[in-house]
Predict the structure.
Amino acid sequence: MIEDKELAIKFFKSINIESRYFPKKIEGKNPDFELHMKHCLFGYCELKSIIDYDVCGERPNPTFNKIQNKIHEAAKQLNNVSPEHTVPNIVFFINHTKKVGWQDLWHVLTGQVTPPNQPTEPIDLRYFNRLLKKGDHEAIDYFIWADTFKNNIYFSINSASPFSDDLKATISSKAYEKINITDI
């Protein structure tokens, strides 16, 4: 969705990170963006939209499976362009449905009920079995979740990521000041 890509670009721009559409020079599925800071490659970002899927005659995919599948797709795309994982990999969810929320992503990542406030410390994905089976937890360093109807943005850092401290300083600390997506 073009609007979602524009929202992601504006978000990163608001925290002084340039988003460039990923060049189509690598075979296979690639992430949506290369992220640059001060003219250097900072990381890669895959955008995933969450929308209502009303499929006639078929049972809709349960929320947790839908989110987990999107994480798995993103991990494959990010691994395709950066198998050495030399820069951070980010998955940016843009949610368009009131039926799904940050709590659902949190449950998929941790297996726990969402804490009352947004977590600010890195989460440990190494102990959640669903993502371990396919190694997805190793490919993704940072999750961003934006609810378009609430104008909220949430963040989670993978505590096992070697980029955890950099991401917290570069994105989280700047972005918490811009928590409302209408300000982007």
